[in-house]
Fold this protein.
Amino acid sequence: MAGKKTTCPITREQFRTRARPITITIGDIPTPVPTKEFSTGSLGWYLNGKTIIDIGGTPVQVQMGLSLTIIGSKELPQDAPAAVTPAPAPVLEPVEAA
């Protein structure tokens, strides 16, 4: 039995205009995580990079990856394409026979 799908409570436009980067702390270092529109159509936050973590006085470099996805955002309607205004038809001048 399939569960009910979660509906995203915001629109794509609301995400674009209102969502802000979040900050996570890794070790003792605050790290900003920027907003992201994923290629899948989902919305959220994404971080990929390297940082240093101290282990008993020894710094070690680590690779980090974080993906926070708003549940249900993939199903939001895509933006409507921009309205295209057709160019006016050229005015043809009558050609006189020679």
The longest strand covers residues 43-55. The two ends are 81 Å apart (CA to CA). The mean pLDDT is 85.
